C-alpha cells in the first residue's frame, strides 16, 4: 500500500479555492490527471495507491468507477469555471478548450472498459473543453490491452499510450512480480501504432536484483526495435511497506546497487542516443520535440492540474490538495455531495521557487543561473556537473555526469 498522505489544512466541503487561485488558473497551462486505482495483481516493488479486488472488499467496483469520477468532475467544474475564472475567459482559452493534456494513470487504467475511459474523457471535455491539439495519454500494462481495445481507445480520442514494459528479461520480470511475458510489451507497442496512436512510450526499470548488464542491453535493444518514439527509464527504488522491501530485509534478494544503477543509466544514454533518442528530462528520452510527454512537461514547468480519483493530488494557482486514499472513502464523500479532498496547503513564493528549481534543473533546457544559488552553481561547474558553455550563457544545464548526480546538484543550488 502507498504511504500516508501528508498533513494539511482542511479542504472546504464544496472544494472551493481562494479567489487568488482561480484568478491565476491556466496561466501556464492546464492538465487533468485521472487516477484509476485498480490492479489485477500487486507488483512487489509498487507502493502506489492501488488495490486488487481482494483488497477492495465490497462497495467499490470497476463497473461504477467512471460514474464516481464524473461526480468529482461535476464538483471540479463548479470550482473552476472557464467562463468565470482567470485567463480562461474568452480568447484567452486555448483553441477548442482549456485542457492541454489528460493523463490516465494508476493502477491499471485499462482494466476499465475503453468506453468507460472514453466517458471520463468526454466528461472532462464537457467540464472545461479539450484543446484542439490536446495530448490524451493512458498508462497500460501490456497484458491488459489487445488490438480491438486499442482501436476503441483511439476512437475515443486517446492519442498517446505508455506501456509498462520494465524489462525484456523473464527473470527480472519474475523478481518484479510482473505478469506479462517478455515479448508482450513490444508487441503491444506495435499494436498501438497500428491502432493509430501517434505516440507510444515504453517504461523500463533498471537495477533490479539479479539483472545483468546483458539483460539490460537486451531490454534497451527491444525498446529500440519496437519503433516507439519515447522511453522512460527509472532506477529501481525500494519503498518501505512493499513485498520487495520485506524480501530484502529477510535476505532473500540483495538491495539495489548505486554503482550498478549508474552503469545502467550510462548504458541507456549510449544506446538510446545512438538510436536517435535525445534526453529531455533526466529519466526520459524522445525521438523529437513532438514526442516529448507534454503532460509531464506541464508538471515540470509549473502548470495547473486537477487530479481526479482517490489519492490524486492537484495544484491550482499555488494551492495544492490531495484526495482521500481509499476508493470507498472517495466514493462515499462524493455521494454525500462533499469534496473528496483530505487536506491542502497554500504554497508560499519560496515553496514555489524551490519546487521550480528542483524540477527545471532536471530538464535539458535547464534553468537560468539567476534562479539558483551562485555558490552551489560554481561548485557544480568546478565538479563537471553542469555544462561550461551553457554556464557562460547564464544557464545551468546538467552534463551526463551531472545527470547521474542530479539530486546532489539540486541540493547545492536550491
UniProtKB/TrEMBL annotation:
Entry's Gene Ontology BP terms? porphyrin-containing compound biosynthetic process
Q: Which GO terms describe its molecular function?
A: 4 iron, 4 sulfur cluster binding; coproporphyrinogen oxidase activity; metal ion binding
Domain (Radical SAM core): give its ranges: 24-278
Q: Per UniProt, what is one Pfam family of this protein?
A: Radical_SAM
Q: Which GO terms describe its cellular component?
A: cytoplasm
Q: Which InterPro entries match?
A: Coproporphyrinogen-III_oxidase (IPR034505), Elp3/MiaA/NifB-like_rSAM (IPR006638), HemW-like (IPR004559), rSAM (IPR007197), rSAM_horseshoe (IPR023404), rSAM_sf (IPR058240)
The question of whether Iron-sulfur is a record keyword is answered with: yes
PANTHER family (UniProt xref): COPROPORPHYRINIGEN III OXIDASE, RADICAL S-ADENOSYL METHIONINE DOMAIN-CONTAINING PROTEIN 1, MITOCHONDRIAL
Summarizing the function annotation, the protein's role is:
Probably acts as a heme chaperone, transferring heme to an unknown acceptor. Binds one molecule of heme per monomer, possibly covalently. Binds 1 [4Fe-4S] cluster. The cluster is coordinated with 3 cysteines and an exchangeable S-adenosyl-L-methionine.
Family affiliation: Belongs to the anaerobic coproporphyrinogen-III oxidase family. HemW subfamily.
This chain's protein is named: Heme chaperone HemW
